[in-house]
């Protein structure tokens, strides 16, 4: 029996990843009970080291752990007004992007992959169907609901088709049941439960509406810092009108307007290379440098923010030229990682993104498919 368990862990690494996900989120009591050795901060010392097989599985679990904020929540935070607590009324693309972020999260957690068949090599990555490889609960209500929707479908559909159906962008009434409703409000309430936002009521002329202003500014600061790192902008440009950004000196961002910034002053230097520099003393991204796909998650965040028209929100205090160059870099990143295989000859490709295991290619394929669809959003909506 023990031999069978060992063979199961080695042969299907995605199952080990599933076990690593269950204890990272509030409400995942079953996952916590299944891993009694895990520490509160996810450190490797929290796992029992009874054998070599257990040591290997603990290392994999550590590197596969996801941050406390999902890609959907990060994208929503970038578009949310800090004090007002609501999104722009004119943004009609964010809902579609959030559905793509759900597919990305499910791929990072080893729940879905691109199907393999005899015609795989004849079609583009965005035209290949998606299949569910694990139905283990993630601990996030929206992700679990999305996973059930994908699993119960009798027809295999592409990434673009699922994004259409989940967002309700279809004229077929028979397929209206696939739509995930009130995604923005449910994501905001999830952030309230995590202590990032708070709930207030605001009067808009003839009606009252629940709003969700930022409660914990540090969470949004950390998201913005990770976006600026990917766009090769200095961290001191994060929020100069507010408190010092995480990882920057207080003197560099204290006060009102700090000055002009330029693309190339960030951690990538003038060469523009992608580099992973974890946020110091992070609350929501602990041990990010030890997480698998940490840099690729940042690329996905920038791609979602660009496609969802919220990438300029953290850049509003910068001059027009800097903003244009930053958005241009985001579009170039989408061009590099929106193809399969990735454009490895591009200066924006980072060797750290390549997975070290065979199962990592399944994740990268879904990422390429979703970003490919995000690049063509103007033609789809």
TrEMBL record:
Its main location: Golgi. GO terms for biological process: Golgi organization; Golgi to plasma membrane protein transport; Golgi vesicle budding; retrograde vesicle-mediated transport, Golgi to endoplasmic reticulum. It is a peripheral membrane protein. One of its GO terms (molecular function) is phosphatidylinositol-4-phosphate binding. It is found in: Golgi apparatus membrane. It comes from the Eukaryota. The keyword Transmembrane does not apply. Coiled coil: none annotated. PANTHER family: GOLGI PHOSPHOPROTEIN 3 HOMOLOG SAURON, TRANS-GOLGI PROTEIN GMX33. This is GPP34-domain-containing protein.
